[in-house]
Amino acid sequence: MNQLEQLPIPLLQWFQEHARVLPWRSDPTPYHVWISEIMLQQTRVAAVLDYYRRFLDALPTVAHLAAVEEDTLLKLWQGLGYYNRARNLQKAARQIMEEFGGVFPASYEEILSLAGVGEYTAGAISSIAFGIPVPAVDGNVLRVVARITGDRGDILNAATKARMRAALLETMPKQFPGAYNQALMELGALVCLPNGAPLCEQCPAASFCTAYQEGLTGELPVKAPKKARRVEKRTVFLLFHGGRVALRRRPKRGLLAGLWEYPNEVEAGPAALEAWGVTPRTLEAGGAGKHIFSHIEWHMHALLAETADDILPDGWVWADGRELEEVYAIPNAFQAFSDTVSARLRSSL
């Protein structure tokens, strides 16, 4: 992987000219870098910016994050998905308060010990906030390294990741580790794009990139095909009474654990209402939607009912429009029905 030895100077020069202005780069405290990196997992930068600002306005320090009520935390996270990331943030914040006296740990090993923090996130915080020369290897970086070096290893394989991480550790500029890691990520995000569509003419590594020189950008990186997702057909029940909509909390374990949702079941019909002790006064179709998780697809259709009374199963709640906006975090899985619910609640005012 001797091509990586040629990368630091042109890459850092490119980054100095082309780096996006981002709030966590402007003020790279450990807390700010940590929050941004967790938010950015499986989420685009543009989508994160407003969430990041809102989150820090509400929870400006580790102590605030450790103390906040979980429902408030999840409401702040609503729209980002993968809610266990938020729960792990709070677990880690409580670790920092209890084990490190409220001071963010300053070594790679200690940062790696925090809940929800893996090698990538620990590397990003360590290098950007503390100047520790360790790599931060995410999907963007793996793609860049595979193309530049011509590595045909499966980048989803742990051995391939370890090999690339070791090569980056050996060749990274020790005096600029944070800038170098961010430059690698930025190159993958802006230039060395996935799916065989990189902007090679804009790349500072074009003159020594194996994939570009040998016409392999469509073949690299190598990734083993994912297993097909299981499709699950679900009926979503949009139940209304007195200008409010019914919500229930999901189980504490499993998919969307502990979040509030519109009641739903696998391929259920109106008989489910009877089983719940809910009496519909009217019943009609309420639209359809689809949501893709990593391993499963929900294909949903909704039944919309105005109930004859306000009786609900234990643990369920009625929520009005303000409470949906400010209190209850509804997963993105049900986004397809949000306009229908909002319009119905407005019409009841």
Write the layout of secondary structure elements.
Layout: H1 8-18, H2 23-26, H3 30-40, H4 45-58, H5 62-67, H6 70-77, H7 84-99, H8 108-112, H9 119-130, H10 139-149, H11 158-171, H12 177-190, H13 210-213, E1 230-241, E2 244-249, E3 260-261, E4 264-266, H14 271-276, E5 280-292, E6 296-307, E7 317-319, H15 321-326, H16 338-347
Parallel strand pairs: 1-6
Antiparallel strand pairs: 1-2, 1-4, 2-3, 2-7, 5-6
What does this structure look like?
The protein has 349 residues and is an alpha+beta fold. It contains 16 helices and seven strands. Helix 3 (30-40) crosses helix 4 (45-58), helix 3 runs antiparallel to helix 9 and helix 9 packs across helix 12.
Looking at this protein, list some descriptive labels.
349 residues, seven-stranded mixed sheet, alpha+beta, single chain, 16 helices, 7 strands
